[in-house]
Amino acid sequence: MDPQTLRAFVAVAREGNVSRAATRLHLSQPAVSLQLRTLAEATGLQLFTRTAQGMALTRDGAALLPLADKALAGLAEFGQAAAALHTTVRGTLRIGTILDPEFTRLGAFLKQLVETSPQVDTALRQGMSGDVLALIDRGELDVGFHLDLPDDPLGAEWLVRPLTRFTYRVLAPAGWGPQVRDRDWKALASLPWLATPPASAHHRLQRRVFGPGSITGLEPRRVALVDQEASMLDLVRSGVGLSLVRDAIAIREAQARGLVIADRVALDCELSFVCRASRSGEPVIAAAWAALDTVWA
Questions:
Q1: Is 4 exposed, middle or buried (0-12, 13-18, 19+ CB in 10 A)?
Q2: Pairing between β-strand 143-148 and β-strand 91-97 as defined by DSSP bridges
Q3: 3-state helix, strand, coil in the chain (%, to 5)
Q4: What does the pLDDT look like over 44-81, one tens digit per residue?
Q5: Cα 86 vs. chain centroid, distance in angstroms?
């Protein structure tokens, strides 16, 4: 049934007058009268009676009026939904992740993104901080978490959203208290250390204190190359050597397993969320940024 015919029926029913209904619909009176006749013929019912005041609904007309209202409301809702689809953010967001999901609030971030942008699919890729940055730079990832050093910010080509600052502590095996307590970086350099690949934030942090141009100028005795935080922690527990560990984990391990924290040294770090600045206006990336802002507000 033609929606315009239903609109004419509803307008005449509400106004009680063809002339006023025509004005409301921006139509001529003959056009409205023709639509009423068309509807009456289509239904086989008399929908109005003429009165001295204008047009009055019959019992059949009164029964159909709520259904006409509902049909027109449904058409309006359909149109709004169709229009909204034109502005719905859709696509795939490739996210680089680091560390553990709890620390980065990854679960809460993805939940918020799904709720606000249900047409966006996500693909996660776990890696070291430097690898995530390189993959975003090559266009293989869209956004990602990254560990920044406070006095070594990324360049202007990056959009960076700082999330939280924290501290890395030096964690030693149980029983190593005499070797690490009240010791500075120079003293700690003589002990065995766990090394990490160049893409790791641990590697960048260690370069601040060990090696050429560092605050000590000394090379530590590196006994193993490890690329996973969980593996590093396990090797410290096993008595292999020292490692940089996030402060919360270091305190937990000291309390639960008796591992030893070097009390005179620490290195600051910052968790951030990054993308290429030139891509920040892309709808999928903007949706990710909005979801992240909500979770980390």
A1: middle
A2: parallel
A3: 50, 25, 30
A4: 999 999 998 899 999 999 999 999 999 999 988 888 87
A5: 21
Residue 294 has pLDDT above 70, yes or no: yes
Distance between CA 173 and CA 194 in Å, rounded?
Answer: 12
Confidence bin at 143 (pLDDT 50/70/90)? very high
**177 closest CA partner among 258, 81, 280:** 258
CA neighbor of 141 nearest in space, from 31, 266, 288:
288
Question: Which backbone phi and psi does 154 adopt, to 5 degrees?
Answer: -70, 160
- DSSP category for residue 218: P
Positions of CATH 1.10.10.10 in the chain: 3-87
- What homologous superfamily is domain 165-270 in, according to CATH? Periplasmic binding protein-like II (3.40.190.10)
Q: Where in the chain is the domain with CATH 3.40.190.10?
A: 165-270
CATH code of the region 3-87: 1.10.10.10
Condensed to tens digits (0 to 9), the pLDDT of residues 170-192 reads: 999 999 999 999 999 999 999 99
Of the candidates 206, 210, 205, 167, the residue with the CA atom closest to the CA atom of residue 189: 210
